[in-house]
Design a protein that fits this description.
Rossmann fold, 2 domains, 12 helices
């Protein structure tokens, strides 16, 4: 009897010590890719500022004609509700309207915002508006494409905080994936960039160029601007395959242009096995990768990016110490791993 009792006691202890943690771990929900990125961003911003302050924060994005910036607008507004601040998002009418974007910023400076979060069309167009905001005591956060810091300082202004992604790394990730797909056989490749001179376009192009030009067997035959425009990219892609019939891959500096390139080549019966990769992982790109229409995209969490920008703005308003720059983590999403990112935001 004693031996039997000892056996059951031992079995019970084994189940408590060894099996319970396993069952508990299995019961926990796995952390999503979006949550992982948000946690990485928020660690850079610790400690958190005071929330639910009701502060008014103005946001100026590039254009709501681009679905990426529509996503950012939604992210900012959702973060404002979550953190108890008032958020107003404005934009230029088109990707290249630098004058209208500055005029919009100047109008925003006249309002009673505690902070402004700015994403410029190009590095210099918002400099006068930044200086005007500084003079009114409005904190200025630069999100994404850089405002030229040297020009701001020469004009007597400052940028109070910066949050961005590593644009060169985006280009490197996309080009590295293309290179790995091409393998030792290599081949001809091309880049479709956005607006020449725009920070995100130049960074992504530089990163892709670096990989292509340093990979044996790969020949970069063309770098063509399409100004972030779907119709322009459609025509550029068509012209590329006509000029370079042996072209094997195109890296595009955003998803809108990548999707246009895929449509263009498909319409001309030139898609074949050509590899097309974009950047931003917008919802349309997600569905296109799942359907096999697009080969890949460089992803980063738009909701997390918007949340982090609002937190950074609050920290500057409240006088917290902040990092020199906050960087959003990146992920390469392809046909091979798309199932892990179907719930990604």
């Amino acid at each position: 009897m004693g031996h039997r009792k000892s056996f059951w006691v031992a079995a019970f202890l084994f189940s408590v010590v060894f099996l319970s943690p396993i069952f508990m771990a299995n019961a926990q929900q796995p952390v999503s890719k979006s949550q992982e990125m948000e946690e990485t961003l928020m660690k850079q911003l610790a400690p958190m500022p005071k929330l639910q302050t009701g502060d008014r924060i103005g946001v100026l994005v590039i254009t709501l004609a681009n679905p990426y910036w529509v996503g950012m607008k939604n992210a900012y507004e959702a973060a404002g509700k979550q953190f108890g601040v008032q958020v107003e998002v404005m934009a230029a009418p088109t990707e290249g309207d630098t004058k209208s974007q500055l005029e919009t910023l100047q109008a925003m400076v006249a309002k009673n915002y505690k902070a402004l979060i700015l994403s410029p069309i190009e590095p210099f167009n918002l400099v006068p508006g930044v200086v005007a905001a500084n003079k009114k005591g409005i904190k200025v956060i630069n999100l994404g494409p850089p405002i030229n810091l040297e020009s701001v300082e020469k004009a007597g202004g400052r940028i109070d905080g910066r949050i961005t992604v590593n644009f060169q790394e985006q280009g490197e990730k996309g080009a590295s994936y293309i290179a790995s797909r091409l393998g030792s056989e290599g081949g001809e490749v091309a880049i479709i960039q956005g607006i020449p001179g725009a920070g995100q376009s130049e960074g992504r192009t530089a990163g892709a160029r670096k990989i292509f030009e340093s990979t044996p067997g790969i020949k970069l035959v063309s770098v063509q601007p399409a100004n972030w425009d779907r119709n322009t990219a459609y025509n550029v892609a068509r012209n590329l395959v006509q000029a370079h019939p042996n072209l094997k891959a195109i890296f595009c500096c955003n998803d809108v242009m990548a999707l246009a390139a895929a449509d263009s080549l498909a319409a001309a019966a030139q898609r074949k096995d050509r590899i097309i990769v974009g950047v931003d992982f917008i919802p349309e790109a997600k569905e296109a990768i799942k359907a096999g229409k697009l080969d890949g995209s460089i992803a980063y969490s738009i909701p997390a990016y918007g949340k982090a920008a609002i937190i950074l703005a609050l920290k500057t308003i409240q006088g917290h110490e902040i990092p020199k720059a906050v960087y959003s983590p990146l992920a390469l999403v392809t046909r091979e791993n798309i199932d892990q990112y179907m719930d990604f935001q």
